[in-house]
């Protein structure tokens, strides 16, 4: 029982970790907490569904198509709305991203309706392999593997590629980065494209477990956000670890204490963590100057 | 003419005879309105007055004290459920019940204010968001609160005189809204209001000037929650029926959007912030700067979609 709870907690946690990563990538470079993240990946998942079911393309084509769509959507939103805001403060930025959330939610409800759909996924959720005392489904394994590969790619990207380093530079000091010849606006676009694509992966991996409707990402988004806060909004590794931790803790709570209040516990943890270590478990704490 | 010579001139409610005239006209028109308008408009006026209360309360927190709350639907829900439960279980008269429910909401506001002492920006946003979601979840799962099915709200009554129609409720709701708005306006002119504004402008500077941050930040949350709680109680009377999905996350966003559209740190702005989206006056906003216009545009576009989706 215990082992089983941990295993399924990790597999849910990897989805939270993906959402948290998507969020942190944007937050790191532009200091915007993107509340529209969930709806962006929900919409991309619907695009995958349309390509796959309505147009009958293969899964690989639909998957890549959805990622491309997500990237373009991210660039579009950043370019059209966020870049237009005049010397924005944190509140108006939050409100703009909440606006994305409402627009995209409305769009998806209008285009695809509130029906619950099923995204056919090539890996089954019902075939399992035994893992000692626990069982794990092929879908969970696929989720874990894809998440790990993505994280590895991100790590390499930020550590060894020129664009990755430029992103870090933009985050640390946008003005200095610009002086050194980095096109910070372009970096922002790339950031949003990447983040949106990662969110789309999370959405597509989530769709077979949950049902595909406009509410698909509401809960995972908040959990992912919570995970990011838990691990620290400024570290990629921390956010990912936060996702896994949240998944496991939540599952253990659900298994042993109360299944009903399972989704409340995440927020309890967050408030506690924020009270004792406001910048997250794995982030350095910066003291703001007057 | 505009020079203020002493402190009492600065804090007085209306500083000229002309303003007094318009003020009395406003009261008169508020009294006459329900006798002239068709029923639906009275219902809308009630609806707006309730949102005015929440928005003014939220503006005290967001606009004047500089904190963020994405969880005001939670306080709204506490007020609504508190009022209904106090009336049905303890059989309190409705004015007492609504006041007590307001204080219960204020207590929760105080509790939520505690983490806010250490948090700011997005962290505070997520903490309050979590609070709002948690309240809805708990209410939805607990049988005392009627679970997902919701519960029916009794009609408010003075002794044998029962307020049932929208027109009767109008006088109750608008009177309370009017008093609360006046109270908010006066609060901002006192020592407390000035402390709030000092915290917004720079909390560290305020602290060095001797403003007790712990006290005033939690107070701001408590006052704001009190307003939301009272509004929630009135909403229960207006709708006659409450269930958890009334108080969802989107509602908190709407509240915040009203505050921003109306203008941060402006009581009058909060009132117009409500009325403008409802009355669908777009062109007034042409001259307002880019940002306000996009957020305004967004709300118009999405509102019907969201509502239809929720109905389905």
Summarize the model shown.
The complex is a heterodimer of chains A (290) and B (312). Chain A is mainly alpha-helical. Chain B is globular, with a radius of gyration of 20 Å.
Task: Describe the structure in your own words.
The complex is a heterodimer of chains A (290) and B (312). Chain A is mostly helical and 290 residues long. Chain A has a two-stranded antiparallel ribbon. Chain B is an all-alpha fold and 312 residues long. Chain B has two domains: 239 residues, no CATH class; 36 residues, no CATH class. In chain B, α2 runs antiparallel to α7, α3 packs across α11 and α4 runs parallel beside α6. The C terminus of chain B is likely disordered. Classes of the chains: A mainly alpha (290), B mainly alpha (312). Chains A and B meet through α4, α9 and α11 of A and α6, α11 and α13 of B.
SSE blueprint and pairings:
The complex is a heterodimer of chains A (290) and B (312).
Chain A: H1 2-30, H2 37-54, H3 59-80, H4 90-112, E1 128-131, E2 134-137, H5 138-160, H6 162-172, H7 174-179, H8 184-206, H9 218-231, H10 236-256, H11 262-276
Antiparallel strand pairs in A: 1-2
Chain B: H1 7-11, H2 17-36, H3 39-64, H4 72-88, H5 94-116, H6 121-141, E1 151-152, E2 157-158, E3 161-162, H7 166-187, H8 191-201, H9 203-208, H10 213-239, E4 241-242, H11 249-262, H12 267-279, H13 290-311
Antiparallel strand pairs in B: 1-4, 2-3
Helix pairs in contact in B: 2-7, 3-7, 3-8, 3-10, 3-11, 3-12, 4-5, 4-6, 4-10, 5-10, 7-10, 8-10, 11-12
Low-confidence stretches of chain A: none
The interface involving the most residues is between: A-B, 45 and 45 residues
Main β-sheet, spatial strand arrangement of chain A: 1-2
* Termini Cα gap of chain A: 52 Å
């Amino acid at each position: 029982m215990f082992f089983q709870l941990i295993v399924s907690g990790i597999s849910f946690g990897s989805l939270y970790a993906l959402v948290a990563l998507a969020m942190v990538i944007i937050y790191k470079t532009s200091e915007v907490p993107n509340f529209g993240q969930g709806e962006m990946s929900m919409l991309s998942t619907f695009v995958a569904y349309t390509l796959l079911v309505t147009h009958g393309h293969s899964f690989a084509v639909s998957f890549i198509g959805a990622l491309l769509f997500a990237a373009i959507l991210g660039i579009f939103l950043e370019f059209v709305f966020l870049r237009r805001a005049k010397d924005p403060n944190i509140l108006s930025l939050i409100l703009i991203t909440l606006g994305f959330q409402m627009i995209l939610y409305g769009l998806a409800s209008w285009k695809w309706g509130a029906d619950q759909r099923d995204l056919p996924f090539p890996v089954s959720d019902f075939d399992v392999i035994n893992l000692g005392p626990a069982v794990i489904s092929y879908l969970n394994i696929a989720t874990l593997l894809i998440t790990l590969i993505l994280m590895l790619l991100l790590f390499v990207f930020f550590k060894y590629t020129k664009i990755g380093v430029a992103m870090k530079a933009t985050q640390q000091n946008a003005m200095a980065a610009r002086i050194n010849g980095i096109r910070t606006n372009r970096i922002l676009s790339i950031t949003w494209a990447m983040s949106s694509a990662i969110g789309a992966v999370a959405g597509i991996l989530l769709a077979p477990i949950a049902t595909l409707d406009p509410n698909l990402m509401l809960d995972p988004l908040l959990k992912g956000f919570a995970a990011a806060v838990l691990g620290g909004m400024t570290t990629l590794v921390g956010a990912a670890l936060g996702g896994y931790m949240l998944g496991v803790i939540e599952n253990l709570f659900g298994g042993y204490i109360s299944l009903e209040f399972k989704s409340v516990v995440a927020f309890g943890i967050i408030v506690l963590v924020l009270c004792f270590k406001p910048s997250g478990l794995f982030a350095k704490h910066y003291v703001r100057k007057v | 003419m505009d020079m203020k010579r002493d402190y009492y001139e600065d804090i007085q409610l209306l500083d000229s005879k002309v303003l007094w005239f318009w003020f009395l006209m406003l009261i008169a028109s508020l009294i006459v309105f329900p006798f002239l308008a068709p029923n639906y408009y009275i219902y809308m006026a009630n609806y707006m007055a309730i949102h005015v209360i929440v928005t003014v309360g939220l503006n005290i927190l967001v606009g004047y004290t500089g904190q963020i709350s994405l969880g005001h639907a939670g306080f709204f829900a506490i007020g609504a459920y508190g009022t209904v439960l106090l009336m049905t279980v303890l059989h309190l008269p409705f004015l007492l019940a609504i006041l007590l429910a307001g204080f219960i909401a204020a207590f929760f506001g105080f509790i939520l204010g505690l983490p806010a002492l250490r948090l700011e920006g997005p962290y505070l946003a997520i903490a309050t968001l979590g609070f709002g979601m948690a309240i809805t979840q708990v209410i939805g799962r607990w049988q005392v609160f009627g679970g997902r099915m919701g519960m029916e709200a009794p009609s408010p009554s003075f002794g044998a005189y029962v307020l049932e129609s929208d027109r009767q409720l109008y006088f109750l709701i608008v009177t309370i809204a009017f008093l609360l708005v006046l109270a908010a306006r006066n609060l901002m002119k006192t020592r407390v209001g000035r402390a709030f504004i000092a915290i917004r402008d720079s909390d560290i500077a305020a602290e060095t000037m001797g403003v007790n941050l712990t006290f005033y930040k939690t107070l701001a949350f408590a006052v704001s929650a009190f307003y939301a709680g009272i509004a929630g109680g009135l909403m229960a009377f207006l709708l006659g029926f409450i269930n958890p999905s009334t108080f969802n996350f989107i509602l908190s966003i709407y509240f915040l959007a009203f505050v921003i559209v109306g203008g941060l740190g402006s009581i009058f702005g909060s009132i117009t912030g409500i009325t403008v989206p409802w009355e669908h006056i777009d062109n007034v906003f042409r001259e307002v700067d880019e940002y306000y216009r996009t957020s305004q545009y967004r709300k118009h576009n999405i509102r019907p979609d969201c509502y239809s989706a929720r109905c389905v």
